[in-house]
Amino acid sequence: MAPSSADRIVIENVAIATVDAQDTEYASGHIVVAGNKIESIGAGTAPEGLDNVVRRVDGTGHLATPGLVNTHHHFYQWITRGLATDHNLFNWLVALYPTWARIDEQMTYAAAQGSLAMMARGGVTTAMDHHYVYPQGSGDISGSIIRAASEMGVRFTLARGSMDRSEKDGGLPPDFAVETLEGALAATEETVKKHHDASFDAMTQVAVAPCSPFSVSTELLKQGAELARRLGVRLHTHGSETVEEEKFCHELFGMGPTDYFESTGWLGEDVWMAHCVHMNDSDIAAFGRTKTGVAHCPSSNARLAAGIARVPDMLAAGVPVGLGVDGTASNESGELHTELRNALLINRLGAHREAALNARQSLRLGTYGGAQVLGRASQIGSLEAGKLADLVLWKLDTLAHSSIADPVTALVFGAAAPVTLSLVNGRPVVENGRLLHVDEDAIARSTRAEAQRLARIAAQD
After folding, report:
1. Which of 55, 146, 216, 295 would disulfide-bridge 324, Cβ 3.0–4.6 Å?
2. What Gene Ontology molecular function terms does this protein carry (predicted)?
3. What sign does the dihedral 199-436-118-193 (CA atoms) show?
C-alpha cells in the first residue's frame, strides 16, 4: 500500500541527479514526497509550512537519483550460480538446461527472493523477471515470483516466457521442460489477465515473452505478438545475443535475427529484446526506426563471451536502451548498480573507445532508459514532480568515494555505493543497506537449501 496522500517525506541537503530531459542536477537540494508521488524537487531547502511531514531526512554526503530499473533477468538461476563458468552461451545452456528443467514452485520462490534481495539492496526499485521454464507439474511458478516481489516491496514486471521447441524439434531444452504452443499461449493469457495492472502506479505488470528464436517456434512468436497486442501488454525476448544465434537463424529461416523478428511481428515500440550484441548497421537502423528497445547486459555478455553490444550506435540511432542484470547463472553478483560501471567500461573497449559512454549516460541507461524499455517513462525513471516516488539515496562520503568531487562520477566510476534509503511508491524498502520487509539471513538459508535440493534431484537423472 502507498502511504496516505497526506503524509510527506522531506529530503534535504542532498545532491540530486534528476535524469530528466535536461539532465538537471542540484549540488544541494530537496525532494518532497507526498503519498506515493514526488510533490516537489529543487535547489536549496524544502518549502516552508508543509503539513503532515512524517519524516525528515538529512541527505548530507548523499546523491539522490531515480531508482534503478532492471530490464532483463532470470530469477530462477540464483540457485544454479557458479556452474559452467568457462562456457559460451550455447554450451552453457546445454550444460544447465537439464538442471533447470527440474525446478519447482518452491525453488523458484526462493530464487526470486534471492535475486530480488540483491537488486533491491543495490538500489533497484523496479525489477523484472523473464521466466520461461515451466516443467510439467511444477506448481504456480508465475504466482510464486510475483509473491516474492510483492513481499520485497519493489515494482515488478513479469515477462511470462515460454518454450515449445525442445530437443526433438532441434531446440536446446529437454522435452519435458517445454509447453505446447496452445498451452503456452493459454497460460500466458491467464497470467496477464490475473496479474497485469495497467494503472499509473501499478506495482505488478506482465509482458508476453517467448524465450528465443532457438527455443520457440515461429508460430509461437507470431501468435505471442498477436496475443500481447490484443491484451495491450508489452513483448520481450532474447535477440542477436551470439554469432551462433545469427548462424542458426540464417540456416533455419534464411535471414538474420532482426529480419526474422520483423517477419513475425516482433519489432515495435511495445517490444524490447535482451542483449542485441551482434547487430549490423541495418539492424540498428530497424530498431531505431521502430523504437524497439534493448536490455543491455554487459556483465553477462562478458561472462558468456558473447561480445560487446554497440550501445553508442544504438543510442545515436534513437534506440531505447536500458540495463539488465541477466540471469545470476551468468552474472553471479546479481546486482544492477555494478552494471552502471560495467556498461561504461566495457563499451569503451569497443570502436568508440573513450567516447563510447560517460557517467551520466550510464546513469541514464540504468534509470530513465530502463523505464522507457518497460513502457513506464511517464511514471518512473527520473525525479520530477508528479512522477512516482521511486528514488535512492547513495552514501558517497565514506572512504570509497569521498575524494571524488563529482557525485555522479563517484557513483558510476567508483566502488558500489551503499544505499542509505530506497523508496518505492513512497514507501521505504531499504535503510542503511538492509532490506526492511524481508529477512536477508533467512533468504540466504532458504536459497542455499533449495540450490542443494535442486542439485540432488538433477544428480539422480
Report:
1. 295
2. 8-oxoguanine deaminase activity
3. negative
Strand-strand pairing, 391-395 and 419-424: antiparallel
Give yes or no for residue 94 having a pLDDT over 90: no
**H or E element, residue 288:** helix 281-290
CA end-to-end span of the chain? 45
* pTM for the model: 0.96
> pLDDT band at 120, cuts 50/70/90?
very high
- Report d(CA 205, CA 1) in Å as an integer: 16
Quote the CA–CA distance of 195 and 361 in Å, as a whole number: 33
Q: Which three cell numbers stand for residue 335?
A: 546486482
Structure confidence by residue, pLDDT tens digits, 291-319: 999 999 999 999 999 999 999 999 999 99
Q: What sign does the CA torsion over 74, 332, 214, 450 have?
A: negative
Q: What is the pLDDT of residues 159-180, one digit of tens each?
A: 999 999 888 887 777 787 889 9
Residue 109 in contact with residue 116, Cβ under 8 Å? no
Query: Which set of grid coordinates corresponds to residue 121?
Result: 539492496
Burial (CB < 10 A; 0-12, 13-18, 19+), residue 199, is exposed
